[in-house]
């Protein structure tokens, strides 16, 4: 079953974030792709996704991504959204992850018209955000993002369209400063992502496999979150809470449920989860070159190679298999397990951080619940 389809509607970006896995972690596949999704590819995508829905009997989340998705001209974006809404069921969720710099009132209204939600990437206050989220001239993006936040928060359809912010963790930052900043923004939610990295190329700020830079940072953030009588929702923590009390994960890289994720590039090529780009060049590519213009998605998801791709989510290392927290952390994202020597047959590079934050949350829940 496919539960998420990520559409790369633009293969270029108007920002040049230094940690970006698409452009700065060794993969160069983006250079081969058209800058923007064409109307012909949109037509092929509509047919492919409807065929997939008909085969599964269940729809999937659709995420418009890039690069920067709002680089797609407004008229073509509307063409895409109209096509997506044409035959897929009404409950199909469609969302856009944007850096916000190109956001306009017209685009927000367009998203409302087609029941599309928007999340904006922002890492924290200016000193934190502008350390990494730079444009191609080396300028910070903070004030331009804040202008877009004010625009969407004040828009008449804000409550229906705006879902919150997505932040990449800087373990050298002050968690209290970050938490208070996002809470004062009065936004619907904020979620946090670990930095991309693996055993050969440690994530920014992490000194060794045993070190706890991210785990300690998340512990401080958790205490602020849990003891706040009116906290801003943080999906990272809510997902762990759900798993610890016996629920199921809704996020890849946690729990033991398999996430069926497909990427469709601007040229119509179908690939694996694009975060795999951070392991080695073209790691997100299937051996067979699948494309929505030439191939049937149903054939792809029934292929042995696709089954092997899904199996990649299940960790193979002895450390993971014997860990009492495997049902919670799921071994982490495959990209975190990579090493040039062993491939994906390693525990996550964040293994100790995961254990630390899981035990922190578990101990708190046992004490108060």
From TrEMBL:
Domain Radical SAM core stretches: 1-224
Keywords assigned: 4Fe-4S, Iron, Iron-sulfur, Metal-binding, S-adenosyl-L-methionine
CDD domains: Radical_SAM
Cofactor: [4Fe-4S] cluster
Alphabetical list of SUPFAM superfamilies matching this protein: Radical SAM enzymes (SSF102114)
Domain of life: Bacteria
PANTHER family assigned to the protein according to its UniProt record, in alphabetical order: ANAEROBIC SULFATASE-MATURATING ENZYME HOMOLOG ASLB-RELATED, RADICAL SAM DOMAIN PROTEIN
NCBIfam families according to UniProt: rSAM_more_4Fe4S, rSAM_YhhB
Protein name: Cyclophane-forming radical SAM/SPASM peptide maturase YhhB
Organism: Neisseria polysaccharea
UniProt lineage: Bacteria, Pseudomonadati, Pseudomonadota, Betaproteobacteria, Neisseriales
Gene that specifies this protein: yhhB
């Amino acid at each position: 079953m496919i539960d998420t389809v990520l559409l790369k509607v633009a293969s270029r970006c108007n920002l040049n974030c230094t940690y970006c896995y698409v452009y700065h972690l060794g993969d160069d596949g983006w250079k081969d792709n058209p800058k923007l999704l064409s109307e012909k590819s949109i037509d092929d995508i509509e047919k492919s996704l409807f065929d997939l829905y008909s085969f599964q009997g269940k729809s999937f989340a659709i995420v418009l991504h890039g690069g920067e998705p709002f680089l797609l001209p407004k008229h073509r974006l509307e063409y895409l959204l109209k096509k997506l809404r044409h035959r897929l069921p009404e409950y199909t969720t469609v969302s856009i992850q944007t850096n916000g710099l190109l956001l306009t009132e017209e685009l927000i209204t367009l998203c409302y018209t087609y029941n599309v939600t928007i999340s904006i990437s922002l890492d924290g206050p200016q000193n934190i955000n502008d350390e990494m989220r730079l444009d191609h001239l080396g300028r910070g993006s903070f004030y331009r993002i804040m202008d877009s936040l004010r625009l969407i928060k004040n828009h008449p359809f804000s409550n229906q369209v705006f879902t919150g912010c997505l932040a990449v963790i800087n373990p050298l930052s002050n968690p209290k400063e970050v938490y208070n900043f996002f809470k004062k923004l009065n936004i619907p939610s904020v979620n946090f992502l670990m930095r991309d990295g693996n055993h050969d190329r440690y994530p920014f700020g992490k000194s060794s496999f045993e070190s706890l830079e991210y785990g300690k940072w998340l512990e401080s953030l958790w205490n602020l979150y849990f003891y706040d009588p009116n906290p801003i929702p943080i999906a990272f923590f809510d997902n762990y809470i759900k798993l610890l009390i016996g629920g199921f994960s809704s996020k890849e890289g946690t729990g033991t449920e398999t996430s069926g994720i497909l990427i469709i590039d601007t040229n119509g090529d179908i690939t694996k989860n694009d975060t795999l780009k951070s392991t080695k060049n073209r790691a997100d590519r299937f051996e067979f070159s699948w494309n929505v213009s030439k191939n049937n998605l149903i054939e792809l998801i029934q292929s042995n190679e696709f089954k092997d791709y899904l199996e990649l989510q299940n960790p193979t290392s002895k450390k993971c298999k014997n860990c009492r927290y495997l049902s919670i952390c799921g071994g982490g994202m495959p990209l975190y397990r990579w090493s040039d020597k062993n491939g994906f047959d390693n525990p996550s590079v964040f293994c100790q951080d995961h254990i630390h934050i899981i035990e922190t949350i578990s101990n708190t829940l046992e004490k108060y619940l």
